[in-house]
UniProtKB/TrEMBL annotation:
This is 6-phosphogluconate dehydrogenase, decarboxylating. Pathway: Carbohydrate degradation; pentose phosphate pathway; D-ribulose 5-phosphate from D-glucose 6-phosphate (oxidative stage): step 3/3. One of its GO terms (molecular function) is phosphogluconate dehydrogenase (decarboxylating) activity. Gene3D superfamilies: 6-Phosphogluconate Dehydrogenase, domain 3, N-(1-d-carboxylethyl)-l-norvaline Dehydrogenase, domain 2, NAD(P)-binding Rossmann-like Domain. Pfam families: 6PGD, NAD_binding_2. The lineage of its organism: Bacteria, Pseudomonadati, Pseudomonadota, Gammaproteobacteria, Oceanospirillales. Catalyzes the oxidative decarboxylation of 6-phosphogluconate to ribulose 5-phosphate and CO(2), with concomitant reduction of NADP to NADPH. Keywords: Gluconate utilization, NADP, Oxidoreductase, Pentose shunt. Homodimer. The gene is gndA. It catalyses: 6-phospho-D-gluconate + NADP(+) = D-ribulose 5-phosphate + CO2 + NADPH.
Amino acid sequence: MLNSHQSCNIGFVGLGVMGKSLALNLADHGYKVAGFDLDPNKVKDVLDTEQSERRSDISEARIIGCKTLKEMLPKLTTPRVIVLLVPAGEPVDIICRQLIESGLEADDIVVDCGNSQWTDTIRRESEYRGKLKFFGTAVSGGEVGARFGPSLMPGGDADSWKYLQPMWEAVSAKVAEDGSQIIKNIPGDPVTEGEPCTTYLGPNGAGHYVKMVHNGIEYADMQLICEAYHLLRSLLGYEPEEIGKIFEKWNQGELNSYLVEITADILQQYDHATGAPLVDMILDSAGQKGTGRWTSISATQMGVPAGIISESVYARALSTLTQERENASSRLIGDIELGDIDPTAVEEAIKNALYCAKICAYAQGFQIMRAAQEEYNWQFNFSDIAKIWRGGCIIRASFLQKIAIAFTENPNLENLLLADYFADALEHKQKGLRQAVILAAQSGIPTPSFFSALAYFDGYRSEILPANLLQAQRDYFGAHTYERVDAEAGEKFHTFWQEENRPERKV
Ligand SMILES: NC(=O)C1=CN([C@@H]2O[C@H](COP(=O)(O)OP(=O)(O)OC[C@H]3O[C@@H](n4cnc5c(N)ncnc54)[C@H](OP(=O)(O)O)[C@@H]3O)[C@@H](O)[C@H]2O)C=CC1
Ligand SMILES: O=C(CO)[C@H](O)[C@H](O)COP(=O)(O)O
C-alpha cells in the first residue's frame, strides 16, 4: 500500500473493459482507486461491481467515482499516479493536456496502459517532461487477465518504476516455479504467491515496444492455429467439435497454451439460434487494431526477417476481401490433385507442423526485439521477457518456460532456433511441417504462415542462398556493386556488364 486509506492511491481514467478490471484488481490488493470515465454509466458500473464483490470485513468503498478530472486530482496521494485505459491515439494526448490544465504537477506519474504505439510513448515522454512524468505500461490478458492478473510490460523513467513496482508486482499474474500460472480468479481473494509477470523493460517506449512484439507473435500464433484447424477441417473433413477435442488433447502436451485452450473451447460451442457450430455462423473477416501490422513494419524497417508475423497480418487483410473472394471463387479454379491420405498420420503431421511453426514465429519475435535494442538503445533481458509472458498474457504457453531457460543459459543466443531444446524439436518434428505444407499445396488450402515458417527454417539453416544471383542482378541494372566470396568483407566490386569482355573493377 502506498498511503493512508483516507486518500486514493491511484486514479483511473477510462473504466471500460480493461480499466474496470484493473481497478478492481488493484482494490483487491488493498489499493484505493479514484475512477473517471467520459461515460457516467461506466463509473456507476465499476462502483456497483466493487460494492457487490466487497468482502463483509471491509466497510469502506475501495473505489470512488469522480465526475471530472479536476475532482479526481485532490483525492489522490502525491506524487499522483493516474492510469489511462482509453483507446490508443488522440485520447491519450487529450487526457494528458486536460490533466495538466486540471493541476497535475511535474512529479505526478501518468501511466498509459493502452495499446499505444511505442513511438507515441517516446514522443509523449519528452513532450510532457516538466509537466508530468509519462510512463508506459502495456497490459496483456484481456478482461479476465486485467481483473485477476495480467502480464504487465512497463517502460519509462527508472524513478517512476521504483514507485510503481510494488503495485504492478501485486496486481500482475503470478507463476509457480515450473512456469505455470497460479490461477484463482476469485474476487477479493487475489493470488499473492509466485513470481510476478512484470519486470522493468527499459526507458522510453520499451514497454510498449515489447507489447507490440507480443501482439505480433499473438497474430502469428492465432493464424497458425487457424491454419491447423483449416487443414483438419478441409483436408480430413472433421467437424468443429471433433477438432475442438483434438485441440483439447494437444493442449495437454508441448502445444499447451492459452490460445490452443480457448480454440478447443470455441470449436465445441454451438450457435443458440441455429444449432450449427458457432464458428460456422461467424463471418470469416478478421479485424485488427494495428499492433501486428506495427510489428511487421518495425521488422521490415530494421531488415529483420519476420515473414510469419507479416503473413499473419496479410492473412487477416485477405480475409476482409469477402466480396472479392466470393466473386473469385467461381472464376479462379484450383488445379487440385490429392492422393490417398491416412488421417491419423496427417493429424500427427499437422500437430508437429503447428509446433515447429510456433517455434519459428517466437524466434522471429525475439529477433525483432534483439534488433530493436541495438536500434533504440534498450538492453532487453530476453529471459525476463519470456518469463513475464508465462502467465497473464494472451500468448502464455508452456514453452515460454523453455524459452526463458534457453535465454538464461545463453543471454546472447543468436536465434531461438539454435537453442538445443528447439533445434532438437525442429530436427525431429520438421517432417510434419513439410507434410502439412505439401498437403496444403496439393489440396489448395491456404496456409501462408505454415509456408512462411518452413521457408524461414530452411532459409535460416542454408549456408548458401541465391542472393548471389540477386546481387548480380542489382549490379547489372543499377551498378549497385557486390562483394566477392574470395575478397575481404566490405570490399565492393562492379562488373561493367555493357562493355566488351565485361571487365570487373573494385569500387
Ligand atoms: N480489450 C482488451 O482485451 C485489451 C485492450 N487493451 C487496450 O486497452 C485500452 C482500453 O481498451 P478497452 O478497455 O478494451 O476499451 P473500452 O472502449 O472498453 O474502454 C475505454 C473507455 O475509455 C473511455 N474514454 C475514452 N476517452 C476518454 C476520455 N477522454 N476521458 C475519459 N474516458 C475516456 C471510453 O468512454 P466512451 O466509450 O464513452 O468513449 C471507454 O469507456 C486500449 O488502448 C486497448 O487497445 C490492451 C490489452 C487488451
Ligand atoms: O492487446 C491485446 C491482447 O494482447 C488486445 O486484445 C488487442 O486488441 C488484440 O489485437 P487485435 O484487435 O489487433 O487483434
